[in-house]
Amino acid sequence: MITPVILAGGSGTRLWPLSRKLYPKQFMRLVDSRTLLQNTLLRLSPLDGVQPPIVLCNEAHRFIVAEQLREIGVKPQAIVLEPAGRNTAPALAAAAMIAQAENANAMLLALPADHHIDDPHGLLRTIVQGERFARQDKLVTFGVVPHSPETGYGYIRKGISLTADDDLHGPGVWQIDQFVEKPNLERAKTYLASGDYCWNSGMFIFKAQRLLSELRRQTVKILDACKAAVDKGRVDLDFFRLDKSAFEACPSDSIDYAVMEHTTAGVMVALDGNWNDLGSWEALWQAGKKDDHRNVVHGDACLHDVKNSFVHASGRLVTAVGLDNHVVVETEDAVLVAPRHSVQKVKALVDELKGQDRAETVTHKKVYRPWGSVEEIDLSERFAVKRLTVMPKAKISLQKHLHRAEHWVVVKGTALVTKGEDQFILKEDQSTYIPLGVVHRLENPGKIPLEMIEVQSGSYLAEDDIERYDDAYGRHNNP
What is the pLDDT of residues 82-134, one digit of tens each? Predict the structure, then answer.
């Protein structure tokens, strides 16, 4: 039986301004009505005997992960919180230990949460083929059959073929000869023409015990640090927190570098089925549905004499004239315009913005909370206007502010308000005032989302002006 291990800790900076630190691409609906994380799990549903998944993410995303799994009816074995980014080798080591605690013979299927696969049946065939070899104690990775000379992917060179004579119609299988870094265009063309290389997908299948024994041989420091992080970890609501000090002491390394490049048990199974890691706006253009002018358009856009371009409008009308091979992405607080051939430089642009401490690299105007969301409408020196959405049966923490007062107006739904010693119901078009320093709480007792307008006023309006007395989600004095 296979236990999916979903790696959901990425930051997705190459898809800025849509992807932000607090809401990266794996949690977005970039291709269809489901998020990339949800599609990663849903495409496994036809497999027999798939166990509840282990999902690894960072603390800031924990409630987003829990809610997105709830939306598709998936109850995980564990949502594991990484206190620091340490790459894929420590993440998979921790997952293997957690899986073994439930099943000594656990078989792990490691999948990044942010890939797009147009042919899920092809993926399932590759998984079944890979499991056959993993049960023979092989460490199996999936190599994507290349269809173009891509420079944004690493490559894997095929070794000796392991495909049986009676399995000529199944996915090809080879020993791994060599991992190759991202090539330049000329070398990528050579790789494609030779037929000896596949793209490195970052997907794996192996026994948990086999991975741990290989880590013990290759890099015991990672193994020991992860064991301490798991042993000292703790359950917190629906999450499992790895021990912070132990995990931060772990070397940061990918599973490729730590294990796969050194093992003699490495095997590659071919995946041939419109795979895309959606690692750039160019990748989204390639994966998207194109109009008659080969444009991929999302949202409210009006184009004239535009071709071969990607245009994404989040909230406003976006217009363009005379563009060819360009990317235009609009969000409420930022706009990106770039030639398609330059989109790999977006990460450098984000690094420059981070150096300027720009909030636009961290969060959108709409911020998700475990109880719903907060969206900034207007902000000035001494006031802020926000739209609050509280999900049914959810509630904010019992709290007070030392530097601001709040005025709440119900727009939709019903609110149960705690204000000092009083508790009362507000319905649509009703309002209340929360003076500075008064303990308060907002709840949604109804069956539909509660929508409110909150007007804050005071000398200090930052989110860290909060003193919590009770919180259903285990938070302290942070958002």
Answer: 999 999 999 999 999 999 999 999 999 999 999 999 888 999 999 999 999 99
Closest CA to 474 of 271, 296, 268, 237: 237
The span from the CA of 254 to the CA of 22, in Å, is: 23
Paired strand residues for 56: 7, 80
Between CA 363 and CA 372 the distance in angstroms is 15
Q: How far is CA 45 from CA 52, 120, 124, 172, 242, in A?
A: 11, 10, 10, 23, 28
- Spatial separation of the C-alpha atoms in residues 194 and 183, rounded to whole Å: 14
In sequence order, which residues have a C-beta less than 8 Å from that of residue 271 and are 6 or more positions away? 122, 123, 126, 142, 143, 144, 145, 171, 198, 201, 203
pLDDT tens sequence across 414-454: 999 999 999 999 999 999 999 999 999 999 999 999 999 99
First CA to last CA across the chain, in angstroms?
39
The rounded radius of gyration (Å) of the Cα atoms in the chain is: 25
Q: Is the distance from CB of 248 to CB of 84 less than 8 angstroms?
A: yes
The alpha carbon torsion through 280, 281, 284, 285 (nearest 10 deg) reads -140
Helix/strand/coil percentages in the chain, nearest 5: 25, 35, 40
Please state the separation of Cα 187 from the chain's center in Å: 31
Q: Provide the Cα torsion 351, 355, 356, 360; round to 10°.
A: 40
Which tokens in the block code for residue 162? Answer: 């392991």
HSE-up (13 A, CA, CB side) for residue 154? 14
Q: Is 88 helix (H, G, I), strand (E, B) or coil?
A: helix
Q: How far is CA 245 from the centre of its chain?
A: 24
C-alpha angle with apex 15: 10 to 21, nearest 5 degrees? Answer: 45
Give DSSP secondary structure letters for 386-441.
EEEEE-TT-BPPEEE-SSEEEEEEEEES-EEEEETTEEEEE-TT-EEEE-TT--EE
Distance CA 61, CA 72 (A): 17
Which amino acid makes up residue 215? L
**How many residues does the structure list for the chain?**
479
Helix boundaries (H) for 135-274: 185-194, 208-218, 220-231, 244-248, 255
Phi/psi for 128 (5° steps) reads -60, -45
Distance, CA of 256 to CA of 470 (rounded, Å): 44
Three-class SS of residue 296? Answer: strand
Q: How far is CA 74 from CA 8, 48, 114, in A?
A: 15, 16, 17
